[in-house]
Amino acid sequence: MRRVRIKWEGPFSVEEALRLNHVNNDYGLYQVYGRRHVIFGAGSLLCLGMARDQTFGQQIQQHDAEWLREEEEVSIRVGRMVSEDYAHEPPDWPDWCQVLAHTEAFEIYWHSPPYNSSNISEYKGQPLRIVNEGERGSLVVECASDLRPLRPKDTSEEGIPETQH
Questions:
Q1: How far apart are CA 22 and CA 66, in angstroms?
Q2: Euclidean distance between CA atoms 88 and 74, whole angstroms
């Protein structure tokens, strides 16, 4: 099982996140929090995404043009993979791209943000153990692909997880 450590920073305003455009550094995962979600309410994790081919600033600019402007009290956290977890890779880091995509997919699967539509119901990537460090927001500290997140359908009528009956 591959360990991936993500060092999170933030929260940033949209304006601050739009400035995260350093071509050698501003890539990884991001979280978008907001207020307007009908069910989850204020400070909810709305979306998890990755900035792989574009910087954080470029990705957030696309979201801003498409839907962020409709949100209220938006904050953004950015996460970068700890370099020791991939520094042995060749200069173009093909493995970094794959690991980042799998990490995004698994974080979405585990946390189920309401504005994400893919990777919600299952994870098909490589075996991962993700450690969320720093300013991780509402993400769990650690999750692993050999475990399953508890979902509402996993409980009995009394609200007790099925495995505890």
A1: 23
A2: 36
Closest listed residue to residue 31, CA positions, set 114, 150, 131 = 114
Ordered strands of the 44-51 beta sheet? 44-51, 28-34, 75-81, 2-12, 128-134, 142-144
Query: Which residue range forms the structural domain that includes residue 30?
Result: 2-164
Does 147 score more than 80 pLDDT?
A: yes
CA dist., res. 118 & res. 106, Å (int)? 11
Question: 76-90 pLDDT, tens per residue?
Answer: 999 999 988 766 655
The rounded distance, in Å, linking the Cα atoms of 25 and 140 is 24
* Structural domains counted in the chain: 1
Query: Which amino acid is residue 125, in one-letter code?
Result: G
Q: What is the pLDDT of residues 8-24, one digit of tens each?
A: 999 999 999 999 999 98
